[in-house]
Write a sequence for this structure.
């Protein structure tokens, strides 16, 4: 399928990692992970005692006096999360984590999505001991709604809607799929499920009495623009299930390399500059490059006498804001020439 985005959610991630770290902790343990004053995650045993995420620790102790609390510490969980995202990257050219428990994955070039997600679920279960949940749609907005991570999407009514709208059930891998009719799918859902919108905007809409997305869909765009300015256009698009943001390729953490040997060795700037152009052109033909975010560039010249001279640049903005990939590489090459470090012809 083309033009598809997935959202993967790892429910009970933190408590499951704690069980992996400490093998003496079992599923029936009364365990919560606390971040600040709020409960971030709970074990299955704690759920049976009436404890819920979002409670304060004091509220949880009233419901279950014998509860064990573990303070959230990022270092305890980051390795497990990165292993999951690396596993996702074996099936997708672009994986964009939002935190340790959720990420967007590009699925447009996956030949068999159901089989791939089935295999991925088995990998994730081996890593953290839980089965992930997926939302699959033509945009990030709807995909994240479908995965069930949002509190408003965990009702029986929502589950009935997704079962009705699933267009490719496949195996029971915890995936809700909507590949068309996004507008109809969103229509009966609460406005709060338009998660990319600012909370102040959502609160204002609720105060106006707009509780369902369908009510937004029926409003004239000019009315929304009068009320919210330019944001009104965005509100209108989101209500129709239109989200043009792409999946940012944070994972896989890989790169593209181009190399060329010279026989005989060269010292001419124009030859090396032409090689940069050739390298950029070659890299752009790689289909994975379209999903990569360039964060670091390096040029290394191997001299005929055995020395290596190199320059690198870390990028904090999109390549286009630096004048393009070729321009950056030429600037690095120019730095090498102007430094005087080249004391022999270049062999490669």
């Amino acid at each position: 399928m083309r033009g598809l985005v997935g959202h993967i959610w790892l429910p009970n991630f933190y408590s499951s990692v704690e069980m992996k770290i400490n093998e003496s902790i079992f599923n029936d343990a009364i365990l919560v992970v606390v971040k600040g004053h709020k409960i971030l995650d709970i074990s299955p045993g704690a759920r049976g005692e009436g404890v819920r995420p979002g409670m304060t620790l004091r509220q949880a102790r009233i419901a279950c006096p014998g509860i064990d609390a573990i303070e959230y510490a990022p270092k305890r969980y980051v390795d497990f999360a990165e292993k999951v995202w690396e596993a996702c990257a074996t099936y997708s050219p672009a994986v964009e984590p939002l935190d340790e428990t959720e990420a967007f994955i590009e699925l447009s070039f996956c030949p068999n999505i159901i089989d791939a997600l089935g295999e991925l679920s088995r990998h994730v279960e081996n890593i953290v001991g839980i089965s992930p949940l997926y939302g699959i749609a033509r945009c990030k907005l709807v995909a994240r709604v479908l995965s069930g991570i949002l509190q408003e999407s965990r009702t029986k009514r929502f589950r009935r809607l997704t079962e009705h709208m699933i267009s490719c059930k496949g195996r029971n891998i915890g995936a809700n799929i909507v590949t068309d009719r996004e507008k109809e799918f969103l229509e009966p859902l609460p406005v709060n499920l338009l998660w990319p919108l600012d909370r102040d905007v959502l609160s204002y809409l609720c105060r106006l009495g707009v509780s369902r997305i369908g009510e937004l869909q029926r409003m004239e765009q000019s009315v929304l623009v009068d009320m919210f300015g330019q944001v009104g256009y965005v509100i209108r698009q989101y209500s129709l299930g239109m989200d043009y943001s792409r999946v940012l390729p944070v994972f896989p953490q890989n790169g593209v390399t181009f190399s060329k040997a010279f026989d005989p060795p060269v010292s001419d700037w124009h030859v090396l500059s032409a090689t940069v152009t050739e390298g950029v052109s070659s890299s752009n033909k790689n289909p994975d490059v379209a999903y990569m975010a360039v964060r670091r560039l390096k040029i290394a010249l191997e001299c005929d006498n055995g020395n290596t001279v190199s320059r690198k640049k870390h990028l904090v903005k999109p390549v286009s804001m630096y004048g393009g990939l070729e321009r950056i590489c030429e600037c690095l090459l120019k730095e090498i020439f102007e430094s005087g470090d080249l004391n022999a012809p270049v062999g490669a």
Remarks:
- The chain has a mean pLDDT of 85.
- The two ends are 42 Å apart (CA to CA).
